[in-house]
Amino acid sequence: MKSDLRAQRVTGKAHARIGSGDSIYDGWGANQGFVTTSEGAVVVDTGFTTISAKALLRDIRASGSAPVRLIVNTHDHSDHVFGNSVFEEDSPLILAHVNCRSRLLELGSERMLGYRALDERLKSDLTGLRISPPQVTYEDEVELSIGQTTFRFIHPKKGAHTSGDTMVLLPDEKVLFAGDVLWVGYHPNLEDANFEGWLHALDAITRMKVDRIVPGHGRVADKSCIAPLAAYLREFDSRLRKLVRDGVPKERISEELEIPGTDEWSLKMIVQRNVDILYDRYRAFEHSG
């Protein structure tokens, strides 16, 4: 089986592999990326399945930038980190925020077992994978030079999509790998979201000197893609709070969360999942107030 991810050059050194589809078998459309340097490749997220991770490795080798020197996990969610172990032949360092590492150690194996138990197709897609946690962590921001290429690893201090997000900035290329801090044309996963921190992180991106942004899900874009996601997060949070406060039953809420401008967005099924996860939190907050 072939990977559905499509590789494209973002700039001279930066490459993105853009996901397609939005089912579990597509890894919900999660993207991968890599940067070519004179000392080897730096990978940004390794994908969900054996297929996608091996295809990424083939693309890197075809670029002439092997071996893989460093893998960056932008956060702990399975669609971005399950492919780590495919790269062990190159013995790369894996870097992530300290909270990403701790969450992956806590939940990664259980998640892997859960997915393998869903059906035979997914079990096959995950053949040979095992949880490979980051060996190197940081807490705030760190800058490295690899093969004369500067990388800046940035953590949203207040949290955003998760408590352990990393964005990868290439200042000389004016490219940002935003991970799941940015979704373009996809409904975002909100299970671990800090809405205030996420909006703060998006605002910070608007002030960065970047021309091209690789999101965690969706097409490569520019800063114009930030406002639609920020508006979505504000609207979702505000509407869900009101619906919970008004006592609307959980099973009816997703019908009331039709946000203008999102008709064509992928991963619509995750809206109900977000409601299922966040409803009790919001309800508890309302009662505590």
What does this structure look like?
The chain is an alpha/beta fold and 289 residues long. It has a single domain, classed as Metallo-beta-lactamase, Chain A (4-Layer Sandwich). It is 34% helix and 22% strand. The strands form 2 sheets. The chain has a 7-stranded mixed beta sheet. A 5-stranded mixed beta sheet has the order 8-9-10-11-12, covered by helices on one side. Strand 1 and strand 2 form a beta hairpin. Helix 5 runs antiparallel to helix 6 and helix 6 packs across helix 8. The model has no long low-confidence stretch (mean pLDDT 95).
CATH homologous superfamily caption? Ribonuclease Z/Hydroxyacylglutathione hydrolase-like
Query: Which structural class do you get from the secondary structure elements?
Result: alpha/beta
- Give the uncertain stretches in residue-range form: none
The ordered string of helix (H) and strand (E) elements is: EEEEHEHEHHEEEEEHEHHH
Summarize the structure.
With 289 residues, the chain is of the alpha/beta class. 34% of the residues lie in helices and 22% in strands.
Give the secondary structure arrangement, pairings included.
Layout lengths: L5 E4 L4 E5 L13 E6 L2 E5 L5 H13 L5 E5 L5 H4 L11 E5 H19 L3 H6 L10 E3 L2 E6 L2 E6 L12 E4 L4 E9 L11 H12 L5 E6 L8 H20 L4 H4 L16 H19 L1
Parallel strand pairs: 4-5, 5-6, 6-7, 11-12
Antiparallel strand pairs: 1-2, 2-3, 3-4, 8-9, 9-10, 10-11
Helix pairs in contact: 5-6, 6-8
